Amino acid sequence: MITGLYRAGNSRLHRAGAGRKLLALILGGTLLLAISSLPLAALGLLIALALYGLAGFGPRVLWTQLRPIVFVLAVLFLAQLWLATPAEAVLVVLRFAALVLAAGLVTLTTRTSDLVAAIERGLSPLSRFGLDVAKVSLAISLAIRFIPAIGQIAGEVREAQLARGRRPSPLTLVVPVIVRLLKMADEITDAIDARS
Amino acid sequence: MSTRDIVLVALFAALMAALGAFPPLMIPAIAVPITAQSMGPMLAGGILGAKRGALSMLLFVALVGVGLPLLSGGRGGLGVFAGPTAGFIFGWIAAAAVTGFLVERFWRGLNFVTAFLAATVGGIVVLYGIGIPWISFVGGVPLATAAAGSAAFIPGDLIKAGLAAAAIVMVKRAYPMIRPAHGRP
């Protein structure tokens, strides 16, 4: 089973409902993006940092959240310095740091299963317009189950090719894996239909 | 949506995750890592068609959003959507839809050239057409600057469009999934 990015803990943030956290994130993020104010962005970043402390996360966790965007932020910062004012350059960096940290915090403190449940609850009003929420849930749980299986299938195909003395290339690996997936889809479909 | 459609959508979302686990290729001449993952939308659209392909990408984006580390490099979670390059992630949904739409149009006489055209228009033109304005808008930089910063990835994406096109044609021959509507040329 694939493990999510959730980090166990018992803080108030960990215990808060997934729906509430998502709503707070959407409201906070919209506010941060809608108002171009340096003090507000700085305040947003401070609040995000304080919440990491509240959730019991240290600098190392903070860094894992920021590391993937550091390069893009550096480029944006330099572009803003060049094209606009230093204040704008700082604003862009502060804003993204705050947004990415806040969004990452929801992920760190909320179990994947709770977020999936929140999505399903959020979608349920759409059932009036013909959306079948049970099918959405089925698709989500199937995909989570299939992820480790595909790695396994790719490994088997690679081994079979090596045994036949063929060097696997991206193409000779991808095509047999996909064809096996498509055949598997029929068997899985029959199994699901037989059970329901 | 039949049960089979749902299974296919879930399988291709999972395939997208598996592509993210591939180690990125470094091509010295362009100094940009090439990840297998951006082949996913081209494959999903080109093999499943527009609707199921786009839904599989939507499902994949949702799985990333609920906190699974499925993007190449093990990234995931809501923080990814808040970053300046999030348009390239949401854009996968449209990329699969357009690739799928074009492959459906070209279905009868599908060959490498038409499949490559579909993968390039969907997986590169449409994807960058969403990703670049997104950076420009949220990052507050001019379009040209955002485009210049993204251009380095285009050569790698063209190679992936070629691989995806070859795979789309081969899979069509082995196991065709798209059924053209009756009476359409």
Automatic annotation (TrEMBL), chain A:
Subcellular location: Membrane
Topology class, membrane: Multi-pass membrane protein
A Pfam entry, by short name: CbiQ
Keyword set, alphabetical order: Membrane, Transmembrane, Transmembrane helix
Membrane-spanning ranges: 22-54, 66-83, 89-108
Top-rank taxon, per record: Bacteria
Major subcellular location class: membrane
Keyword Calcium recorded: no
Family listed: Belongs to the CbiQ family.
PANTHER family: PROTEIN ABCI12, CHLOROPLASTIC
Name of protein: Energy-coupling factor transporter transmembrane protein EcfT
Species: Jiella pelagia
TrEMBL record, chain B:
Entries under Pfam families matching the protein: BioY (PF02632)
Lipid bilayer topology: Multi-pass membrane protein
Keyword Transport: yes
Transmembrane segments: 55-72, 78-103, 110-135, 147-171
Source species, domain of life: Bacteria
Name the record gives this protein: Biotin transporter
Family of this protein: Belongs to the BioY family.
Subcellular location: Cell membrane
Record keyword DNA-binding present: no
Stored PANTHER family: BIOTIN TRANSPORTER BIOY (PTHR34295), BIOTIN TRANSPORTER BIOY-RELATED (PTHR34295:SF4)
Species, as recorded: Jiella pelagia
Keywords attached to this entry: Cell membrane, Membrane, Transmembrane, Transmembrane helix, Transport
